[in-house]
Design goal:
With 321 residues, the protein is of the alpha/beta class. It has ten helices and 13 strands. The protein has a domain of 207 residues: 4-Layer Sandwich (Metallo-beta-lactamase, Chain A). The structure holds zinc ion (ZN) (2 copies). One zinc ion binds next to helix 2.
């Protein structure tokens, strides 16, 4: 397996793609973002293996975000590769008009609910327009949880891992010393992946994401390969660390409501993250909302006409996160 790393700054930055050349099949996991610098890095990386876009047999996409799917259509146009992605994310990868319209409508509805100021909505708008970075649209084969993909001498097992997006998938395989997986943005080495803003279609995003982290931890992978930056050598510990991070964040949210509540998601985000720029204008209040919604569903927070207010102490957070 070859790791292809890119120097892009969009989204979480430094995306990775993975090249598998098992048996007589050439498989890619993710394709980077469709900007000229990444395209050059991509072709240079393939060239080192005496391969080009035309040699790719299949492409496996972890989720719909353009920094993971950007070049899939261009590669498919040259190679006729089969492109796989989970059925929930497929309509956004194929840029289905209805799916895009529903995504935008949901974003607008939530900006209202979150209390996002108009000038911040105007500032965010250019970052939501992905026309320049999506590249050519591929045809896709939809995947569901538990499916397997033949990659030559081995198989990839599809593990639906929702939270960051609705259709995010990890792909498990037999590694050199034990089970390994490609995890996309389900677990990242440096940042905690955004929940709530990165895909506003996800219902109960924090609950889904915590389940995903728990089931990844239970698989006891030897190591996992994320969508950004370096391999994660202790994935179970990393998954548990992110769960703990969300527990601490949920406690902070209760404390913020105690001090400043009732408050909307935008205000809670402001206390958590401070002033936001670029795509973080979406991710910050999205994350705050994911927590408020989760705490409300568990009765620790109440949603009133004037905003959210805490109805439990932060010691009780441990029961629900
Ligand atoms: Zn992502
Ligand atoms: Zn990403």
């Amino acid at each position: 397996m070859r790791v292809l790393t890119f120097g892009n700054h969009e989204f979480e930055g430094q995306n990775s793609a993975y090249l598998l050349t098992d048996g007589d099949l050439v498989t890619l996991v993710d394709t980077g973002i469709a900007v000229p610098t990444v395209r050059d890095e991509f072709t240079a990386g393939l060239d080192e293996q005496n391969l080009g876009f035309k040699d790719i047999d299949q492409i496996v996409l972890t989720h719909w975000h353009p920094d993971h799917t950007g070049l899939a259509g261009d590669i498919q146009a040259q190679s006729d590769a089969t492109v796989y992605v989970h059925e929930a994310d497929a309509p956004l990868v194929t840029r289905d008009a209805t799916a895009l319209r529903e995504l935008e409508a949901r974003q607008r509805e939530l900006f209202e609910t979150w209390g996002m100021p108009q000038e911040k909505r105007d500032e965010l708008l250019p970052f939501l327009s992905t026309e320049e970075i999506v590249g050519r649209t591929p045809d896709v084969e939809p995947l569901s949880d538990g499916a397997t993909i033949d990659i030559g001498d081995r198989t990839l097992e599809v593990l639906h891992a929702p939270g960051h997006t609705d259709g995010l998938c990890c792909f498990a395989f037999d590694g050199d010393h034990g089970p390994e997986a490609f995890v996309g943005d389900a677990v990242l080495p440096k940042y905690t992946p955004n929940v709530g803003g990165a895909d506003v279609r996800v219902e109960e995003p924090l609950a889904k994401y915590l389940d995903t982290l728990e089931s990844l931890a239970e698989r006891s992978f030897d190591r996992v390969w994320p969508g950004h930056r370096d391999v994660i050598e202790a994935p179970t510990e990393r998954a548990r660390e992110i769960i703990e991070h969300h527990r601490e964040r949920a406690k902070r949210v209760i404390d913020i409501l105690d001090d400043h509540g009732p408050a909307d998601a935008w205000t809670v985000s402001d206390h958590l993250f401070g002033d936001l720029e670029g795509i973080h204008i979406l991710h910050g209040p999205g994350e705050a909302y994911a927590h408020l919604d989760h705490l409300e569903r568990h009765g620790l927070v109440e949603h009133t006409a004037s905003g959210y207010r805490a109805v439990a102490t932060h010691e009780t957070v441990g029961d629900v996160v």
